[in-house]
Design a protein that fits this description.
Radius of gyration: 18 Å
Oligomer: single chain
Number of domains: 1
CATH class: Alpha Beta
Distance between the termini: 25 Å
Number of strands: 11
Shape: globular
CATH architecture: Alpha-Beta Complex
Largest sheet: 6 strands, mixed
Strand content: 15-25%
Order of helices and strands: EEEHEEHHEEHEEHHEHEHHHH
């Protein structure tokens, strides 16, 4: 359980997120994901990274229970910094990062996906930012890389989800496949990239980042400032607790 990585054939590194049941990642997990991704890029044997997940969905975002259990703002600051570090690690990784998304991809999951180079998704995948409903703000920077501006605003204000098929329509998801074929589909693209000259691919990644019009690190940290402001006023705490109370009620009804 946690963050693991493995080298496969031809310089392909697979990094797996595994925090049952929904991959709500604790603050330490975000830092570990950043370390694994950065380390993969720094390894001269690496040619491409595949970021994937186990469990019911790709990522449910940060672990809200960890924040609610803590007193003061240490857990919130750790989660904010951890997310920023992990998102930046995906964006700045010296080799291309392919994400394989299944099930739900929420909050911090969108941050990871929006900073990746290539997105493959299963036909049951959905993407969304529930931040407004949780008393937080963030990852609009990354959602804006996946959908057009006005759709991004609609999704952000309403906390609605959007399907993998919609993202494929807009060109941000390269391929939508049945769940059982997801890992294989990501590996096919990874193998294709791995056959290229690694020096050229690494230069290409640096060059593409260099011409990117959006300074993703700064804009995301700007968003996080409003999250902290909402926490200082107590708005976020009430919103998180309302969600957790509702989640407990839903689990009880399911049982």
């Amino acid at each position: 359980m946690g963050i693991s990585s493995s080298h496969t054939e031809n310089g392909i590194v697979e990094i797996t997120v595994d925090y049952p049941p929904v991959n709500a990642i604790p603050s330490r997990g975000w830092f570990e994901l950043a370390e694994a991704t950065t380390g993969a890029g720094e390894d001269p044997r690496s040619r491409v990274v595949v970021l994937r997940a186990e469990n019911r969905g790709f990522c449910a975002g940060v672990d809200l229970k960890e924040i609610q259990r803590s007193t003061g703002y240490d857990a919130l600051i750790a989660a904010n910094r951890g997310c920023a570090r992990a998102f930046a690690a995906v964006y700045d990784c010296a080799v291309p990062v392919i994400v394989a998304v299944h099930g739900f991809c929420l909050g911090g999951g969108v941050g990871l996906v929006g900073n990746a180079d290539i997105i493959v998704a299963s036909d049951d995948a959905t993407f969304g930012l529930p931040e407004v409903d949780r008393g937080a703000l963030g990852a609009a920077t990354h959602l804006a890389r996946l959908v057009p501006q006005h759709l991004m605003r609609t999704l952000y204000y309403t906390a609605r989800n959007v399907s993998a098929q919609t993202l494929h329509h807009h060109g941000s998801v390269i391929e939508v496949v049945p769940r059982a074929r997801l890992d294989d589909a990501a590996r096919v693209i990874a193998k294709e990239i791995a056959t290229k000259d690694p020096a050229v691919i690494r230069a290409a990644k640096e060059a593409i980042n260099g011409i990117d019009p959006q300074r993703v690190h700064r804009s995301y940290r700007f968003e996080q400032g409003f999250t902290f402001e909402l926490n200082l006023t107590g708005v976020s705490d009430h919103a998180r607790q309302a969600f957790l109370d509702g989640d407990h009620a839903r689990q009880a009804n399911d049982g």
